[in-house]
Design goal:
With about 170 residues, the protein is mainly α. It has one domain (about 35-174). The protein contains 5 helices and 2 strands. It has helices at about 5-30, 40-70, 75-95, 110-130, 145-174; strands at about 135-140, 140. A two-stranded antiparallel ribbon has the order 1-2. Strand 1 (about 135-140) and strand 2 (about 140) form a beta hairpin. Helix 2 (about 40-70) runs antiparallel to helix 3.
């Protein structure tokens, strides 16, 4: 990995932390304290468990592929990020579909915009990388350039789950 890629990753993390900090401060000033009821806490616990089991299965499968096939299917960083995005996506989608992602009284509109923006930015960065000649597969294994695609796909799935849930809830209210 070159220094410009590491700088981009660090900058992306800083921007994400800054966005979440701004949202947290704005919510605190409005007095919108995030509180989950007992049912939501219980369901979130089940979703954490499902996300954790997903990560465990992924780690075992990735390790076995590497060990038994003797093929370096990707570098360690890429493998870990694929597992991270997969397990977090499972957790978030499970929470969204079971009404445990948003706190009582919290509106999903801001999160829809944020997840849509992150998905779009990640997919645009991936497209730019492809246009610049960076490859998804290098020397027979996935390269770290795949991570933007996986991030974009994860946030797109989360966005779609939020959108579907929001539209269903609105239709049920009518």
């Amino acid at each position: 990995m070159n220094n410009s890629y590491l700088f981009g990753v660090a900058l992306g993390i800083l921007v994400a932390v800054a966005i979440f900090a701004v949202i947290a401060v704005a919510n605190k000033k409005r007095g919108a304290e995030v509180k989950y009821d007992e049912r939501q806490e219980f369901v979130r616990g089940k979703a954490y468990k499902l996300g954790f089991i997903t990560l465990l299965i992924y780690c075992v499968a990735a390790g076995m592929i590497d060990l038994y096939l003797g093929v370096g299917w990707c570098d360690v960083y890429t493998a870990m990020m694929l597992g991270f995005y997969g397990s977090v996506t499972v957790f978030v989608v499970k929470c969204i579909l079971t009404d445990a992602y948003f706190a009582v009284g919290q509106r999903p509109a801001g999160w829809l915009v944020l997840t849509g923006a992150v998905a779009a930015i990640s997919l645009v960065v991936f497209a730019v990388d492809l246009n610049d000649g960076k490859r998804i597969v290098e020397n027979g294994s996935l390269s770290h350039n795949t991570i933007n695609l996986v991030c974009g796909a994860a946030f797109l799935i989360i966005f779609a789950a939020m959108l579907v849930k929001t539209l269903r809830d609105r239709a049920a209210e009518r």
